[in-house]
Specification:
Helix content: 40-55%
Protein name: DUF4124 domain-containing protein
Pfam families: DUF4124 (PF13511)
Keywords: Signal
Mean pLDDT: 76
Largest sheet: 3 strands, antiparallel
Number of helices: 4
Strand order of the largest sheet: 2-1-3
Shape: elongated
Length: 135
Amino acid sequence: MSLRGVYRVPIALWLGVLASAGASTVHATTVYRWTDDRGRVHYGDARTPGARAVEVKPGSGAAPVPTDPVQTARSEECERRKSQLETYRRATSVVETDALGQRREYDPQQKAKLLEIGAQQVRIACGEGATEGGS
């Protein structure tokens, strides 16, 4: 059979075969637990003398739980804005350096305005009422 014949099989059929093969592989794995001579507990997929099968619940492993990438990005932006605002709040002074290396220190009124803008950015990124500690 030539490779040309392989490509004639509908792609949906191949995807279905691959998905069912992957699903059966995940559910068919047996994990065994045993204790060695020193009292250390071991886990493995090979049955050894004294080992017993253990139930492994889906989602209990180290694999990350799939998340919504948009929600993850929003959450990260929210945390970044909160952290930035908290840094400004704790700072005794705020100094800005531009691309040319020119430094400018904010006076108390400018710092208050910066905090107000930062709190507004937190509310936008995290949702209304999300600023912690007030502004």
